[in-house]
Amino acid sequence: MGGPGPEPELPDGSNLFAAVRGGAGAEAVARAYARAGWPVRACGWTEWEARCTFAELVVEGIDPVLVHGLVADVAANADRAVAPLRDAGIPFRAECYDAGGALLAELRWPPG
Predict the structure, then answer these.
(1) Best CA proximity match to 59, nearest among 89, 104, 12, 16
(2) How far is Cα 110 from Cα 112, in angstroms, rounded to an integer?
(3) 16 near 52, Cβ under 8 Å?
(4) How far apart are CA 94 and CA 36, in angstroms?
């Protein structure tokens, strides 16, 4: 019986960038990731790191709060990487890019 497969390989550079507006601070955004089951830790005075098997994200700033980092197979996982924001009802706009810097997708909540 096989166990879980190998962890996905993260890219060399950030490929997901999101801006959160509307008053949710970096700590509140980080808590949304923690509630979704992501391990979260403080990584500076006002910065947070949220990690999972397919992503390593940094949450920082005030207004907007920025969420950015590395997402394995970003075309397939970008929606999963911002799901904690959407599920918490936190408005955001995100963009993901391929290794060459070309825009792959824009995601936002609420839609529109």
Answers:
(1) 16
(2) 6
(3) no
(4) 18
CB 81 within 8 A of CB 71: yes
Instruction: Return the structure tokens found at 107.
Output: 């995601």
> Radius of gyration over alpha carbons of the chain, in Å?
14
Q: What is the pLDDT of residues 75-102, one digit of tens each?
A: 999 999 999 999 999 999 999 999 999 9
CA–CA separation, 9 vs 106, rounded Å? 22
Cβ–Cβ under 8 Å, residues 4 and 65? no
CA distance 53 to 57: 11
Half-sphere exposure of 78 (CA within 13 A, CB side): 20
Global pTM reads: 0.91
pLDDT digits (tens, 9 = 90+) for 34-62: 999 999 999 988 999 999 999 999 999 98
Question: How many residues are listed for the chain in this entry?
Answer: 112
Residue linked to tokens 């936002």: 108
